[in-house]
Design a protein that fits this description.
Layout (H helix, E strand, L loop, with lengths): L1 H17 L1 E2 L1 E2 L2 E2 L7 H26 L7 H34 L8 E4 L2
Parallel strand pairs: 1-4
Antiparallel strand pairs: 2-3
Family: Belongs to the major facilitator superfamily. Proton-dependent oligopeptide transporter (POT/PTR) (TC 2.A.17) family.
Subcellular location: Membrane
Keywords: Membrane, Transmembrane, Transmembrane helix
């Protein structure tokens, strides 16, 4: 299931970034390099989960695992994916609004909106 989310994120993010301004200061970030950001978040958040949330859950539930695998998937990961989905919908609508106001709806020029 997680790979399905990452596959969708990787293709859609690159396609969106192609239509946006990918400059950070004087550096122009290639749209394909956006795939690094979700992986970095996973690398950062996994140890935090293991060292902060799991010990707290072990104390609260008095079990070795802390919470079951099903609870792990359903509780906080589902909430994070839901919030991310809402953010994607907001970005999609804001990109269309910016394109309409800028007169770039059918243009190949990048929109005046940053990819971040």
């Amino acid at each position: 299931m997680f790979n399905c989310c990452l596959a969708q994120l990787s293709t859609f993010s690159v396609e969106q970034a192609v239509t946006m301004d990918t400059k950070v200061g004087s550096l122009k970030v290639p749209p394909a390099s956006l795939l690094v950001f979700p992986i970095l978040f996973i690398i950062i958040l996994t140890p935090l989960y293991d060292h902060l949330i799991i010990p707290f859950a072990r104390k609260a539930t008095k079990t070795e695992m802390g919470i079951s695998h099903l609870q792990r998937i359903g509780n906080w990961v589902g909430t994070i994916y839901h919030c991310n989905g809402n953010r994607e919908l907001w970005l999609k609508s804001s990109r269309k609004r910016v394109a309409t106001h800028s007169g770039l709806l059918d243009s190949n020029d990048p929109l005046p909106i940053t990819f971040f």
